[in-house]
Amino acid sequence: MGFTFVSGDPALDFAGTVRHRRDDRTDQLATPADLARWTVEAGLLTTAPPADAAGLDTAVALREAIYRLAAGAGGRHDRDLVNRHAAAAPVTVGLTADGTVERTGDLPAALATLARSAVELLGGPDARDVKECEADPCTRLYLDTSRRRTRRWCDMRECGNRAKAAAFRARHRPDP
User: Fold this and answer.
1) Which residues form the Zinc finger CGNR domain (predicted)?
2) 110 lies in a domain?
3) What mean pLDDT value characterizes the chain?
């Protein structure tokens, strides 16, 4: 299963690694290798960091705290956890000899970068634009940057398309 990056913010994409939270829950970070691969695919690190079960547990705890805070259900414990991670050294960014960006660091640095992203988002003016996808059973959070702030789905290609197709079928269903 591939990762999806449609939330508009790395912290929200990280929270979105759990699909269908209310029913048929699927955790895309099932193993330490999944977590390491996600850090590269998300663009946090150039090379996958070493990850073990303890690192995965730490990352999942951070992910869930970010989700609860972004969904408006977080408390002091969640805020303290995010702040602790945000206080750590983040990923280091450098320019290579061939002119590309290299992002280096270990797993704690990647988690610090995600926590800082969450702090900036949830503590800033864009916090009011965090929404949950309206498509059932999707529970992905996303940043609504549409002009009128009327976006309804996390991703038009998947959730939006399914919702529109279902509405079309309902409108064109023959009456009994």
Assistant:
1) 130-172
2) yes
3) 92
Gap between the Cα atoms of 59 and 27, Å rounded: 12
Backbone angles phi, psi at 130, to 5 degrees: -80, 125
Look at strands 130-132 and 141-143 and give their pairing: antiparallel
Domain of 106: which CATH number? 1.10.3300.10
Q: What is the largest CA-CA distance in the chain?
A: 69
pTM, full prediction: 0.89
Q: What is the pLDDT of residues 35-51, one digit of tens each?
A: 999 999 999 999 999 99
Q: How many domains does the chain have?
A: 1
Range of the domain at 41: 10-171
- 8 A C-beta contact, residue 73 and residue 132: no
What residues does 19 pair with on adjacent strands?
A: 26
Residues in contact with 9: Cβ distance below 8 Å, sequence separation at least 6, in sequence order: 117, 121, 143
Torsion of CA 92, 104, 5, 64, to 10 degrees: -80
**3-state secondary structure (DSSP) of residue 27:** strand
**Is residue 36 classed as helix, strand or coil in its secondary structure?**
helix
Cβ–Cβ under 8 Å, residues 28 and 146: no
Within-domain flag for 116: yes
